[in-house]
């Protein structure tokens, strides 16, 4: 729900799943991807995520309001998959909470995949006798 066209109203609302659907429509060579900040290197992420597995590889857009912090973007995995992610932290301590969560999030992404690639997952064929 958007209360204004700027996205700055405290009445604006969007879900993480909606943001991920938007990300999923792009690709890792498109304008949206190429325009995002690179962790530890450029833009609003230049001083963020340094010394983490995301430094130099995670591309994302940050969102900052008085009581809100958001991070949405792409993380390339070791097996060639790309994780699209979005998370939003709201509240009085959003900045402090979000920045520590960013580090945890990236460390989790770096351990992926510990199992099968998403493209290998799915229902098994049913054999009828």
UniProtKB/TrEMBL annotation:
Pfam families: Peptidase_S13 (PF02113)
Molecular function GO terms recorded: serine-type carboxypeptidase activity
Protein name: Unannotated protein
Stretches assigned to coiled coil: none
InterPro entries: Beta-lactam/transpept-like (IPR012338), Peptidase_S13 (IPR000667)
Protein source organism: freshwater metagenome
Key words of the record: Hydrolase
Family from the record: Belongs to the peptidase S13 family.
Gene Ontology biological-process annotations: peptidoglycan metabolic process; proteolysis
